[in-house]
Amino acid sequence: MNLHSTIEHMPEEMYLRLKCAAETGKWPEGTVVDQAQRDTALQLTMAYQAKHLNCDEMLTIGSDGQMVHKNKRELKAQFSTAAKDTPITACAKPNTESESSVQSNIAHFTDL
């Protein structure tokens, strides 16, 4: 089986396993990956990204097979757009019942 057919029929779960092995040097279950396996996992991950993922994130492989590079201006524009799209939500206030129970569990050293 050649590389193109392997990538064409690779499920996303396998891509994620290979990506984990290439990034961390371990399979998801913790088994150490030797250098040859890591190199192969990296090559397959990059080929999968180029074939299946239409991603323009920094340092990924684009659909043209080239690594995506962005300059500072492009990154600032991307992050400012992402920040505008994400609503800011207030933190939830703690429940007063649980707050009093937490305070009662705290040791007080006033009797020393």
Written overview of the protein:
The chain has 112 residues and is mainly alpha-helical. The protein has a domain at 1-72. It is built from five helices and no strands. Helix 2 packs across helix 3 (35-52). The longest helix is centred in the middle third of the chain and has 18 residues, at 35-52. This is DUF1315 family protein. Residues 95-112 have a biased composition (Polar residues).
Short description:
InterPro entries: DUF1315. The chain has helices at 3-8, 12-24, 35-52, 72-85, 96-105.
Outline the fold blueprint:
Layout: H1 3-8, H2 12-24, H3 35-52, H4 72-85, H5 96-105
Return the string of H and E elements: HHHHH
- Shape estimate: globular
Report strand %: under 5%
Radius of gyration: 24 Å
Q: Span between N and C termini? A: 76 Å
What structural class results from the helix and strand content? Answer: mainly alpha
Number of strands: 0
Mean pLDDT over the full residue set: 74
Largest sheet: none
Enumerate how many helices there are, as a single number. Answer: 5
Question: What is the helical fraction, as a range of percent?
Answer: 40-55%
Poorly predicted regions: 98-102
